[in-house]
Each structure stands twice: as C-alpha cells, then as structure tokens.
Specification:
With 171 residues, the chain is an all-alpha fold. The chain is built from six helices and no strands.
Length: 171
C-alpha cells in the first residue's frame, strides 16, 4: 500500500487535474458563460466582454493543453512521445488552440469592434438596412467567428476523445 502522499507526487494525479481543468474550462466558457452573457447583456456590453474574455480563454486553453502534455504519465513528454495516438490528439488540440489564440480569436474581436464603430458611423444597427462597409464587416466577422467556433468545437471533441483514451487506461 502506498503512502498517503503518493497522489501528491504522482504525475498521473496532475495529468488528470490538467486534463479535467481543460475540458471543464472549454465546456463552461463555450456553452454556459457565452450563452448567458449573450442572453442577459446588451449587445455593446456583450461585445466588450467577449473582446476581453476570449483572449484569456484561449490563453488558458493553450496553457492547459501544455500542462496536460507535460504531466503525461509516465515520464512527462518523453512518455507522451511513445504514444502516437495521444501525441496526435494533443497535437491537434494544441495546434487549433494556437490558431484561435493568435489568428481567429483576434480577427473575430477586431471585426466585432469594427462593426460596432461602423454602426456608430452609419447611425444604425448592423441588422438594419446596411451600408456597403457594414456588409463587408459583417462578412469579415461571420467568417472569422465561424472558423473560431468550429476550431473550438474540434478542440472540445479532441479533448473528450483524449479523455476517453485516458479513461480506458485507468479501467
């Protein structure tokens, strides 16, 4: 029988915490907080909040993928390197998280802000009879936002699949 301190010194314990935090953060931010804020905040406040929240979310997501890889049992990244399916899943999760962090997240935020400024210049909401500039900004926002949403969804699916693989090793 192991020591009471064994869970505190086991790489596997920290790996489960890192993976669980990753999945929990993804699900909570994507399906709870964003939905609640969209429903309960006026659009300008929702826009400002999203502009501030999603860069932090993508930073946390990327960091937790790294933490999951670094705590891979046994042997951290060296142990991970021997398991090609796990390397592949965590690699896809990491790569798509980076795309959202550095490309599609910032583009979506910028387009959202530009659209709000264009509404002010046009003197009307983006849903009214819109100017040519607003139509371009809506298209820019929609394409970047759709890409960010899809990448995030693929990351969540990958995180769940990784968890299923992890769970099969425990049983």
């Amino acid at each position: 029988m192991g020591s009471i301190l064994t869970p505190l010194t086991s790489l596997g314990s920290y790996h489960l915490i890192a993976w669980g935090s990753l999945l929990g953060t993804e699900l909570y931010q994507s399906f709870v907080m964003t939905k609640l804020c969209y429903i309960h905040l006026p659009r300008p406040q929702f826009t400002m909040l999203q502009k501030r929240v999603f860069p932090v979310y993508f930073n946390i997501q990327t960091g937790l993928v790294v933490a999951t890889a670094l705590t891979y049992p046994p042997g951290s990244v060296l142990g991970l390197a021997k398991n090609i399916p796990d390397v592949g899943l965590l690699g896809v999760i990491f790569g798509l998280s980076l795309l959202n962090k550095f490309v599609y997240g910032p583009r979506t935020s910028q387009a959202m802000v530009e659209r709000a400024h264009q509404e002010t210049r046009d003197g009307q909401r983006h849903t009214d009879d819109i100017s040519k500039e607003m139509a371009l900004l809506k298209r820019k926002f929609s394409s970047n936002h759709a890409m960010s949403i899809h990448l995030n969804l693929i990351v969540i699916i990958g995180t769940i699949l990784y968890g299923l693989r992890l769970g099969s090793k425990i049983a």
